[in-house]
Amino acid sequence: MNQATWVPGRDPRAVRHLAPRPRTGGEGFTPRGVVVVGGGIAGLTAAVGLAERGVRVTLVERQQTLGGRVRSWPIGLCEQDAREDAAETATMSRGFHAFFRQYYNLRALLRRGDPGLERLMPLDDYPLRLADGPTDSFASIPRTPPLSIAAFVAQSPSFPLSALRHVDIGAALGLLDVTFPATYSEYDGVSAADVLDRLKFPDEARHLALEVFARSFFADPREFSGGELVAMFHTYFTGSAEGLLFDVPRAAYDEALWAPLGRYLFSLGVTTLTARSVTALDESDAGIRVTLDDEQTIEADAVVLATDRAPLQQLVAGAPWLGDEQWRSRVAALRIAPPFIVWRLWLDRQPAPGAPPFLGTSRFGPLDNVSFVEQMEDGARDWATRTGGSVVELHAYAAPADFDETAMRAELLSQLHRVHPELARATVVHDEWIVADDCPLAGTDPWADRPGVTTSDARVVLAGDGIRCEHPVALMERAATTGWLAANALLTERGLPGHDVWTVPLKGRGQALAHAARRAMATLPSRR
Q1: Are 348 and 395 part of one and the same domain?
Q2: pTM for the model
Q3: Who's near 427: CB < 8 A, 6+ residues apart?
Q4: Given this model, what pLDDT does residue 210 score?
Q5: Is 89 inside a domain boundary?
Q6: What 3-state DSSP class applies to 113?
Q7: What CATH number did the domain enclosing 388 receive?
Q8: Structural domain boundaries enclosing 260
Q9: Which helix H or strand E contains 332, and what residues bound it?
Q10: Per the domain annotation, does 4 fall within a domain?
């Protein structure tokens, strides 16, 4: 393989960010090594990055399984049929996740446990349906800009020619003229809803082409950062030739992703403590003393805090030696996204032939998407084949904090039946209901005020999808990217080599792409 020309995907414009040069005279790590707090994507990435450079790592995860908010776990599934009552083990998770081809740094992590990424499978389409309106598809859209933009506008039923006259072309083409990280700050104080208002897109296009993506951050577009929306549009559509199609694991998350990675960490000598929590961080003569929930303490040279937002705030609040008052106040002020709901239903019948594995929805009440797990995961597929049923998963993002569960269940089921009327008479064999409110909110606050990977103490670094990152990355990819960057910060400070990371281009194609987009659109057949 020619390292000079290799790229991690199909986009030749992908950008390689070289690891910082190791500090001359760095003293390395003592046998105490590093404690990584959190076994989600960010923590797992940081642990891999450190252990591969010979650092002793202790990984502490409060749940029984690894993976954080993308973990899975076993459940008891009760089946009832005419012959007997039986119980078997199934799996549950916090919901469907799309592994986009642009997730270069997450894929680099997964390759440690699955070198060929054979445990991922592609989905053929990413359909988006508007209630009483059109369904958009990305299956036949070219992946490389500007053809991707022109073809989508030309083919999408959400962009009728009569409505395009009202679009603010200048504002729309401005989405192509971005530079990261500057673009993040340029949208300080601007919400995703404000960005959509400026574009003056047709109402159908607003909901399907843009607002659906905003809600994938578990936030109301009025509370979600406009800079993050623009970055997402650039990452998935206008700035990358990877396209909007994605992969999903062939089995439950733990089986396909995290158990293999856990075995890889074990081979590197990493000590993994699950079902344990870190309760305090203190300075000590040896470095940092980490206290666990059973009062056990671990002495470490350094710590990676790769936790959810609330545990991060609690640990920082309990460590007055860490950071100055302004930084600590900013950490304390970080917000959590509204609650989201995952409802998985084991039904006694299958959907109509051709039902997509995943469908994004808009204006179906609180329902944001529908997925059929048996079309993706082996375990659910086996159950559906044996019983003739299906395993359907419903998501509702940005739910009101005071919602009534009984009413919400009834409404989600009603909306499922609008999307799939053939399931209206299905019997629910088993169901699992999850409500969580631990996702970080990427709000309209100043981007530069969010905590970044490094802190004022070189021994403490942060990682996670809620941590500021200069690159155009988001969600799982931001977690992985900040994990690599956190490991790099500790390694290079101690004189050890770090790890390169990859991103989509940092700049949009600006006026050149806008001009090319206009020309490409002019060559496509008109549509009425």
Answers
A1: yes
A2: 0.94
A3: 347, 348, 349
A4: 63
A5: no
A6: coil
A7: 3.90.660.50
A8: 19-68+252-336+451-499
A9: helix 325-333
A10: no
User: Which residue from 433, 504, 509 is spatially nearest to 471, judged by alpha carbons?
Assistant: 504
Strands 34-37 and 99-100: unpaired
Geometric angle at alpha carbon 235, from 233 and 240, rounded to 5°: 115
Q: Which of 236, 9, 256, 246 is nearest to 123 (CA)?
A: 246
- Contact present, 273 and 122 (Cβ < 8 Å): no
Q: Let me know if residue 122 belongs to a domain.
A: no
What is the number of alpha carbons within 13 Å of residue 353 lying toward its C-beta? Answer: 0
Tally of domains within the chain = 3
Q: Which two tokens stand for residue 111?
A: 């390759």
pLDDT in tens, 7-59: 999 999 999 999 999 999 889 999 999 999 999 999 999 999 999 999 999 99
User: Which helix (H) or strand (E) segment is 16 a member of?
Assistant: strand 15-17
Q: Are 199 and 468 contacting, i.e. CB atoms less than 8 angstroms apart?
A: no
CA atoms within 13 A on the CB side of 179: 3
Phi, psi of 35 (to 5 degrees): -100, 125
Rounded-to-integer distance, Cα 347 and Cα 386, Å: 12
**Structural tokens at position 120:** 């991922």
Closest by CA to 48, choosing from 90, 126, 107, is 107
277 and 221: one domain?
no
Torsion angle defined by CA atoms of residues 402, 407, 410 and 416, in that order, rounded to the nearest 10 degrees: -40
